[in-house]
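Sorry to interrupt, but I need a hand with the structure work. Could you write out one complete protein record for me, on any chain you like? Just paste the record in under my message, thanks.

. . .
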Amino acid sequence: MKAIIMIIRMRTIFICFLCLTGMVSIAQKETFSKVSDPKEVEQRLVKASASMNTITSDFVQEKHLEYLSVVIESKGKFWFKKPGILRWEYTDPYKYIIVINQGKIIIKDEGKKNEFDVNSNKAFQELNNIIVNSVNGTLISSEKYNYEILEGKESFLVKLFPKDPQMKKIMKSIELYFLKTDMSVNRIKMVESDQDYTMITLRNKKYNEVIPASVFKVN
């Protein structure tokens, strides 16, 4: 039961592993239409992701819920290192840490640490696959998703629709906004229902810097 609860709490984190490229501002009201050459866009995404070996970034997460009139905002930081090591840390308004390292998922919540094997649960395995495919730039071509690519004046919008019934329970769709100039991602929107969604904005990204091994350990 604890593993299931943890997976549900991590549903917004799934999406951040899709965006292993840069970050710049994108207009909120940009108009989009279907792209003329989806394969060309896919190739550009693969090329951009290939140059990223490590990433450090701040993030702001906004949670929009139908039954609340206010937006729930949280902040934090994440570190990523190929082939699939990462630390996702919420710092405000609460403390919550997730580390994936050497086939293990480590959770620290309110000072309590729990460890899970990636292969012990289908959802864990899917999370690991998302990371690997994101690094390789092949997530869009995965048979696990239907997708469409739209084009605006300054950016591409990639919409992913999971096929797996279990994943559909977690998210209805994923929207990734890529800047045309360097195929970088600024915003990631996860739609859970017609009214509920999560928006994640990445800030102050740094690429290919040395990340100490201690970052990926949880005491």
Q: What stands out?
A: The mean pLDDT is 78. The CA atoms of residues 39 and 149 lie 10 Å apart. The domain at 2-216 is CATH 2.50.20.10 (outer membrane lipoprotein receptor (LolB), chain A). The helical segments are 2-9, 11-16, 38-50, 122-136, 165-170.
